[in-house]
Design brief:
Strand content: 15-25%
């Protein structure tokens, strides 16, 4: 709500800046874009609207995997929002330095504030921060979050649990001795929580699939080992799209 109000005020200020310098108008236009993107990101992230489940077959390794796709809108808005923050801080710093006499102290301060935003964009370009996905294969589950990667083989899965923290999550729980592989892909930003115990936490807000269906898919393949051989083939994709997740026995 505050971001939406900020968007309107910044846009109004940019529109009334005819008599001001172009630098002031540019500043408020970028600020309006930042506030607008922040408001839109909050709405899209917390009030997801989903259609057909985002699931597909993808080549992986020597075979393939069934991918539960992330919501590209969410990640795209996040990157655009941070990019606007970088443009706002760095652009303002350059404007102040170029058009002010001497060496104004505010210029390096603004540039310093923009460093994290610039670093974020660089991490995205290098692939260390990505939109993420969940890959289900016959051997196990591979999670690619925004800033973490983890792998849990099916033989190490102890169960699947639904949880709620103001939004629905699904936890794929591992055994105490699970062969759990994990790593952070970004050393600077920690946008994902790394569990201390063997586990894959699936935040439903980031996936283009209904939370209930997402939970049922993970529960189905954890409960029925004989069905895992179809993962990484079109059969698994068709099953999920049909929502055919009843007991096959």
């Amino acid at each position: 709500m505050l971001a939406a109000v900020g968007f309107v005020l910044a846009l109004w200020r940019a529109g009334t800046g005819v008599a001001d310098s172009g630098a002031v108008t540019r500043f408020f236009l970028i600020l309006a874009a930042l506030m607008g993107l922040t408001a839109l990101f909050g709405y899209v992230y917390w009030r997801p609207q989903r259609g057909e489940p985002g699931v597909r077959y993808v080549p992986f390794g020597a075979g393939g995997a069934t991918e539960l796709r992330s919501r590209t809108w969410v990640f795209g808005l996040l990157v655009a929002m941070v990019g606007c923050g970088a443009a706002l801080a760095v652009g303002a710093a350059v404007e102040v330095f170029v058009f002010s006499g001497g060496f104004p102290w505010v210029s390096p301060v603004l540039a310093l504030l923009g460093v994290p935003c610039v670093a974020f964009v660089v991490e995205v370009l290098l692939g260390r921060i990505r939109g993420g996905s969940l890959l289900l294969g016959p051997d196990g589950i591979r999670q690619r979050g925004w800033t973490v990667e983890s792998y849990l083989p099916w033989v190490s899965v102890a169960g699947v649990r639904a949880d709620h923290h103001g939004y629905p999550e699904t936890w794929v729980l591992g055994t105490p001795t699970a062969a759990w592989a994990k790593r952070r892909t970004s050393r600077i930003f920690r946008l994902d929580r790394m569990p201390v115990a063997p586990m894959i936490e699936v935040d439903s807000r980031r996936f283009d699939i209904d939370p209930v269906l997402l939970h049922r898919v993970l529960e189905f393949y954890a409960r029925f080992p004989e069905m895992r051989r179809e993962l990484g083939s079109p059969r698994a994709t068709e099953r999920i799209l049909r929502r055919d997740l009843t007991d096959p026995r």
